[in-house]
Design a protein that fits this description.
alpha+beta; 2 domains; 3-stranded antiparallel β-sheet; two-stranded antiparallel sheet
């Protein structure tokens, strides 16, 4: 082989490797974007049915950021929560729920809890409390 052909093949090989590296770097963010929805759409869906208990994106991200340092959860869940706080995009399965917690044995008071829930696997999920409201009702 002549040196000229060798240089041509080497340049082609390097260009091909550069294109592959760029594609490999671009695939994870594209995959995350494709498999997520804006947090604002989940908030709007919740607020549409809970007018008197409206919640904001800022409240959710603040709750995530404040609980992350001490949260006992698998690394994958912690990474998902960090990504939610950073990008304000949530997994497709995400919902915001409001439910009545068990009453306190000492006082008889109970709490209304608002949580951000998302699936972490086919049959498993995770919920992070966003708001607790004390009530005697």
């Amino acid at each position: 082989m002549t040196p000229r052909i060798m240089r041509y093949r080497l340049r082609t090989l390097l260009a091909l490797l550069a294109v592959i590296a760029l594609l490999l770097a671009a695939i994870p963010p594209i995959y995350r974007w494709y498999n997520s929805i804006p947090l604002s759409s989940v908030v709007a869906a919740f607020n549409g049915s809970h007018h008197e208990h409206a919640i904001t994106e800022a409240e959710i991200t603040a709750a995530i950021k404040s609980q992350l340092p001490t949260l006992r959860a698998p690394a994958s869940v912690r990474a998902t929560l960090r990504q939610i706080a950073k990008s304000r995009r949530v997994p497709l399965s995400t919902t915001i729920n409001r439910f009545r917690d068990t009453p306190s044995a000492a006082t008889g008071e109970y709490y209304w809890v608002t949580s951000l829930d998302f699936m972490t696997g086919p049959k498993s999920g995770f919920a992070i409390r966003v708001r607790e409201t004390r009530s005697n009702d």
